Amino acid sequence: MFKFLSREPIHDPLDAPTPTDETTVKTTTCYMCACRCGIRVHLREGEKGPEVRYIDGNPEHPLNKGVICAKGSSGIMKQVSPARLTQPLLRKPGSDRGAGEFEPISWERTFEILTERLGKIRATDPKKFALFTGRDQMQALTGLFARQFGTPNYAAHGGFCSVNMAAGMIYTIGGSFWEFGGPDLERAKLFVMIGTAEDHHSNPMKIAISKFKRDGGRFISINPVRTGYSAIADEWIPIKPGTDGALFMALLHELIASNLIDHAFLKRFTNAPQLVVLDEGEREGLFAFDPDPERGPPGDGRNPHNKLIWDRADGTAKAAYPEGIGEWCDPALEGHYTLADGTRVAPSFQLLRERVADCTPEWASAITGIDADRIRKLAREMGETALQQAFEMPVPWTDAWGKVHPTTQGRPVAFHAMRGLAAHSNGFQTIRALAVLMSVLGTIDAPGGFRHKAPYPRHIVPNYRAFNSPEMIKPNTPLNAAPLGFPASPDELAIHEDGSPLRIDHAFSWEHPLSAHGLMHNVITNAVKGDPYRIDTLLIFMANMAWNSSMNTMGVREMLNRKDADGEYMIPFLVVCDAFQSETVAFADLVLPDTTYLERHDVMGMLDRPISEFDGPVDSVRIPVVPPTGECRPFQEVLIELASRLKFPAFTTPEGERKFSGYPDFVVNFQPSPGIGFLMGWRGKDGTEHLKGEPNPKQWEAYAQNNCVFQYHMPESMHYMRNWNREYLDFAKEKGWRQRNDPVQIAIYSDTLQSFRLAAQGKTQGRQPPDELRERIDTYFDPLPFWYPPLEDGVTDREAYPLNALTQRPMAMYHSWDSQNAWLRQIHSHNYLHVNPVTARAAGIEDGGWCWVESQWGKVRCMLRYSETVEPGTVWTWNAIGKADGAWQLAPGSDEARKGFLLNHLITEELPFANAHGGTTISNSDPITGQAGWYDVRVRIRPADPDEPKETFPQMASMPSTPGVVGKAASVLAYFAGGRRK
C-alpha cells in the first residue's frame, strides 16, 4: 500500500509485474526513439478493448536491462494522441494542397486508387514512381518493394541524418558507430565523445557511461554545446561546428610526430604499408599490385589481395598477402622506393605522414577555437592511454593468415561520434579522419576501443552494388540490383551514357557518388524542377517534409503546391503515410493512416538494422499489444497488399496468386537466400535452429514468449579483432552475414576515392564526369582525409553572418512525434535560441528577450536564453518543437506554434553552382555522400523591436482538423505499484 511521506520505495522497478484480474502485461519493443529498448506494457480492459495504462522497461531485455526514459514511459500518450489518423483520406476535388480538405474513403477504394495508378506507371515508365521513407526501420522491405516495382527512386532517411557517419567509417574500417558498433566502455580508461546529442543509443549509453565513471574512467566531450551526456563529462572542450576534421588532422600530426602510434597494428591489419604508385598516369595514386595471375587481377577497390609492401628486412617489394605479414617480414611504413620496373612508390602511411605534416595544433587552433596546447595535451593523453596503459586479455584467437595470437591486445581509448560530425558538407572526410585516428592508435575492435556489432564489419567496399543500369528500367520488370548500395568505382554509378543522373534525387551520380542512403532532402525540389525528369507519384512514409524534415520549409510547401502551365501539379500525385496529423498530411492527395508501434508487428533484424551487442547478434520484434485504432493499417501490411495486387514476382506465384497473407507471414517465410530470413531466432520447422534454418511457422510465438528478443552469444574467441579473426570470418560467411571470408584491412588510404579522382583528372579510360564537375570530384575525392570548410562558407559573407547555428534533439523528445505528446510537452512546450551571454549582450539582446535570427536564406523571430554551455560563436536550439498552428491537433495558439520555432527556415537545400546543362544550383550536401549539410548555416542575431508581436515568425495559417482524427485525449488513469489511484 502507498504510504504518504514514507521513504519506502513505491515499488521495485526490477520486480516482475504482478498481473491482476484487471491487468495484463505484454512485452514488446519501444519506438519512442531509435534506441529500441525492451518494454513491458500494462493493459486493462476498457469499454472498447484493452487499453494501455502503464509502460516500464523490461529488466530481461539485453539492451536496456529495465532502464526506461521519459520518452519510453510516455508512449501511452502517443497511443491516445488527439492527432491520431484513423481512416484513409482523399483530398477533396478542387481543394488546394495544404488546405487539409479531405473526405474519408475505404481501404478497398484506397487500394483501387493505388493499384490502378501504380500499375499504369509500372507498365509504362517505372521510374516515375518514387518511394522515400523517413525514420523507419524496415528498409529491407521498403527497398525490396522499390526494387520489385522497378524504380530506382527509393531512399531512406539516412541522407538527411547520418549517412556520412555510416559511409565514412564503413569505407574506412568496415563498420560504424550506432547500430553497427560502438565504444567498449567496460574496458576503456579514456572516453572521447564528439558531436553526439542525447538521442543516440540513449539508455544503453547512459548505463555504460554511468558504470564507466563509477569505475574511474575519464570522459572528455568535444562539442559546441554542453548538454545531455556532455553535462556530466569530466572535461568539456568547446569546438566550432564543422571544424572537427581539422582537430583530428592536428591530433594525427601530434601522434605521428611523437611516435604514439601502434606500428604493429598498422603493419598487419591496415593498408598503411601498402605501396602507392607515385608516377603520373592511369595508375597514379592507386596501389601497386603483384602481376602474378595467381594473386588475382589488379585491385578494383573490392579485391585488395594483390597489393605490395616493401620489406625492410631485405629491401625488396613483396606481396602484401600473405608475405607482407609473415614473421620474417618487416613491412615499411615510411620511405620512398622504386619497383623493379622503375615505378616510384611509397607506403600509404608515408603519404599520411606527409599529409598531416602541416596540420599543426596552431593551424587547427585558428580553425577550431581550441587552444593549441590543449590539442597537444589531448593527443598525448590519447596516445599514452592507448599505448602505455595497454593490457592483454587471456583471449586467444587466430587471424586470417593462420597466426595464433595467445592473447588479445587491449587499447583503452574509446570514441563515440554521431550527427554533429556527419551533418556537414565536409562530414565524410571528417569521419574518415576520425576513423584513421582511431586506427593509428590500434583501437579497432580491440578491448577498450571501438568494437563491431554483427553483422559488421563489412568488406571495404561492401559487396552491395546499387542499381546502376538505365537499360534495365523496363515495364513490369524488377531491377537487377537494390536501389541503394556502396559504389566502388565510377563504373558503378547510377548514370546515363551522357553522365546525367539516373535517379530523381541525383544519388549515385557524379554530384554525390557514394550516396549510400540517397538524398531524401532533394526529391521534392528536383521533382518539381523536372531534374532530371518529372515523376508522377511520390509516396512519403514517416517524414514531415512540409515542416521539420525539410531544409527549406517554406520553399518546399510552395513547391508541393506548384503547378505547370496546364494547371497540373508539378508532382501530380502525393501519397503520405503517417500515424498523426503532421504538417505534411495537409498537402497529401491520399493519406494512409499508419499504426503506432504498440499496434503492429515490426522487425529489427539482421537484414536491416539489428540491435546486436558486442558479444553477438541480437534481433528483436514488435508484437501488437493493442488492436489498431480505427481503420489504421501498418504500412508494412499496405506494402504487402500492394505488392500482391501488382503481382510483384517476389510476392506472388507464377500463377499470380499471393505468396503471403500479410506482413507476419512474409517475415516468417521470405528468404533472400536459403535458410536466411528476416529473423534469426527459433528457425527450423520445430524452432530449434538459430541464425540459419528453414522457416518456422511459429516463429512469432517464440519471440512473444521470449520478451520479443533473440540474443546469440558467440564464443569469446570471436569477440574481438573481427576484421581479421579467422573463426569469426568463417562463421559470418556461413551464417550469411558476409559473402566472403576475406580479412577486412583498414583503409588508411582509399584507392576507391582515388579511382573517382583519376576519372575527374581525365587519366582513366572509363566513365568521365561532366566537365563542370571535374574540379569538384578532383578536390573532394582525396584518398587521404583532409579538412575543408563547409561548402556553404564559400557562398556566405562570414562577416555579415558570423555565427554558426545548429539544432539538437532534446533528451525527452524524438522528431516531431514527441513534441505533440501530452506528457512530454510539460517538459518542453516551446524552444529558445541558446546563446552565450557574451555573444547575446554584444548584440544587445536580454536573457529571455525576443530576437531575430537571420541567414542569407531566411529569418526567424524567437525568444533567446543565455547559456554559458555554448561556445561563443555558436547559437543553437532544440529540433522539431515548433509547430504550424493547428497541426498535430494542438489547440490554436499553442506554445509550440506561438513560442516554438524551427531553425529550418534559415537553411537551404541548394547552393549556387553553375553547370553546362543550364542548372544554377547543386544540393547543399556533402559532395561525396549527399549527406544534408544541416549544420553549415551561418547567421546573425539582433533584438526584436519592442512593439513587434510576441510570437515566433514565420506563422502559418491555422490547419483545419483532419477528418477522422481522435480529436481529444482519452482519459488515462495514473497508477502506483499496480493499484488504481482513486
The portion of residues forming beta strands comes to 15-25%
Basic shape: globular
Number of helices: 24
Task: Classify the secondary structure makeup into a structural class.
Answer: alpha/beta
Biggest sheet features: 7 strands, mixed
Q: Determine the fraction of residues in helical runs and give it as a percent range.
A: 10-25%
Going by CATH, what is the homologous superfamily of one domain? Dimethylsulfoxide Reductase, domain 2
Please tell me the CATH architecture of one domain by its name: 3-Layer(aba) Sandwich
In angstroms, what is the radius of gyration?
A: 28 Å
Q: Which fold name corresponds to the CATH topology of one domain?
A: Dimethylsulfoxide Reductase, domain 2
Poorly predicted regions are 969-982
Q: How many strand units?
A: 38
- CATH class category name of one domain: Alpha Beta
Protein name: Formate dehydrogenase
Family: Belongs to the prokaryotic molybdopterin-containing oxidoreductase family.
Organism: Variovorax guangxiensis
Cofactor: [4Fe-4S] cluster
How would you sum up this structure, described in words?
The protein is of the alpha/beta class and 982 residues long. Among the domains are: 89-158 and 470-593, Rossmann fold (3-Layer(aba) Sandwich); 174-455 and 745-749, 3-Layer(aba) Sandwich (Dimethylsulfoxide Reductase, domain 2); 794-943, Barwin-like endoglucanases (Beta Barrel). It contains 24 helices and 38 strands. A seven-stranded mixed β-sheet has the order 5-4-25-24-23-6-7, covered by helices on one side. A six-stranded mixed beta barrel has the order 29-33-30-32-31-36. Helix 4 (139-149) runs parallel beside helix 16 (635-645), helix 7 (244-257) runs parallel beside helix 13 (427-440) and helix 10 (361-368) packs across helix 11 (372-388). The protein is globular. Mean pLDDT is 93; it is low at 969-982.
